[in-house]
Amino acid sequence: MRDRKEISGNIDWTLVFLYLALVIIGWINIYGAVYNEDHSSILDISQSYGRQLIWIVTSLFIGLVIILTDARFFSTFAYLIYGSTLLLLVGVLLFGNTVSGSKSWFHIGSFGLQPAEFAKFATALAMAKFFSSQHINIKEFRTRFIPLIILGVPAVLILLQNDTGSALVYSAFVLVLYRMGLSGNYLLFGVFVAVLAISTLMVGQYYVMGFVGALAIVLLFFIKRNRSNILNLAGLLLLALGFIFSVEYAFDHFLGDHQKTRINVLLGKELDLKGAGYNVNQSKIAIGSGGFLGKGFLQGTQTKYNFVPEQSTDFIFCTVGEEWGFIGTTVVIVLFILLLARIINVAERQRSPFGLVYGYGVASVLFFHFTINIGMTIGLVPVIGIPLPFFSYGGSSLWAFTILLFIFIKLDTKRASLL
User: Fold this and answer.
1) I want to staple 71 with a disulfide (CB 3.0 to 4.6 A). Which of 194, 261, 323, 414 is the partner?
2) Phi first, then psi: what are they for 311, rounded to 5°?
3) What's the CA gap between 418 and 10, in Å, rounded?
4) At what angle do helices 115-131 and 141-160 cross, to 10 degrees?
């Protein structure tokens, strides 16, 4: 009895409250997104909002089980959990079902399970386990290389499932590496690479190559012209030119037609309001039509007449914008920002490296999903099909995000212990 009181007293109830607020608001908006007058009861399990309630109840049960589990379980078996999810990712490639072009689902009757969602918290555990080992120095090549393997293996397996969006989530873990001491130059290098890639796709490789070559000539006049510096500059120039060439080559030979079209629409090179740009255009119309206060609950015309596909999943945020307006979207965004800020705050008070690193892993995954999903609905990033955490319809995603967060809440209850 005393242990239970100690656990409840140490739980960060702010995180729990923010989680519940997002889950409940998400459920209400799923109801608004797929409302049907013939099935008006929000408890109707034949409809997605009724089934979402089942996922919510089971998620709360999962959260309770995690809270009652010994915190040392997650550090002791971190690699085993990680390895198990890798086996599931391999298994879904061999025996899974294809949904919307991605072979990433196991189906048992009417129930579907997406292992890629669960691989995220397992990867965060593996990263935390590695960095909590003794004699870890981020300046050593080994310390930078092994985390890339931990991140790269599930990302590649998910790419093989043709689920690019879920694979890209693993790039967010660079924030964990940065917190553990990785030089900010790597982040700047990543930004430079992204700028080169986007510029190449927008204006063409030869223009960008010309600009980079001219930039190298200008830099030559500002650096100390010795053999070492000149060779380094020449090497960087060759790498940049090779990368620019590879971007256009990869775009032409490795991406599917629908992926090319989505990127071209985003970059403004194509206008396809009836094809690849349809979802985003209708989503922007829905959000914009909500105005300041919104049209009112269940009053969204874009929603009611199904103009926006996938509105209860990937595009759930546009329902908020249409029915609840600027005020509603602001509330949702503020709740997510408060959640992320609280996770970082709680991570920084951990006394063990395991809790600290895992906390930043949680924040990284949620931040990526939050920014990219909302960015998709307002046309700032390509549509890559990832859910809004705790908000979008789906059992796998809600379970996985619940596990991701509640493991951290559990670790925090034992923050005084060395894991």
Assistant:
1) 414
2) -75, -20
3) 16
4) 170
Q: What is the pLDDT of residues 323-361, one digit of tens each?
A: 999 999 999 999 999 999 999 999 999 988 999 999 999
More confident residue, 305 or 252: 252
Instruction: Tell me how far apart the alpha carbons of residues 327 and 253 are, in angstroms, rounded to a whole number.
Output: 44
SS3 126: helix
Reference 163, options 315, 362, 314; nearest CA is 314
| Cα–Cα dist 331/298, whole Å | 18
Element (H, E) at 363: helix 353-377
Q: Which region among 103-117, 214-228, 299-313 has the lowest average model confidence (pLDDT)?
A: 299-313
- If you average pLDDT over residues 308-326, what whole number do you get? 85
Q: Which runs of consecutive H residues, i.e. helices, occur in 139-204?
A: 141-160, 164-168, 174-179, 184-203
pLDDT of residue 418: 46
What is the spatial distance between Cα 199 and Cα 385, in angstroms, rounded to a whole number? 24
Averaged pLDDT of the chain: 85
Which strands sit side by side in the sheet containing 97-99, from one edge to the other? 97-99, 102-108, 111-113
User: What pTM was estimated for this model as a whole?
Assistant: 0.85
* Alpha carbons 115 and 91: distance in angstroms, whole number: 9
Sorting pLDDT into bands at 50, 70 and 90, what band is 269?
low
Q: Which residues contact 334 (CB under 8 A, 6 or more apart)?
A: none
* Domain locations along the chain: 2-182+270-413, 183-254
Gyration radius (Cα) of the chain, Å: 23
44, 308, 50: which is closest to 317 by C-alpha? 308
419/132 Cα distance (integer angstroms)? 8
Reduced to 3 states, what is the DSSP secondary structure of residue 207?
A: helix
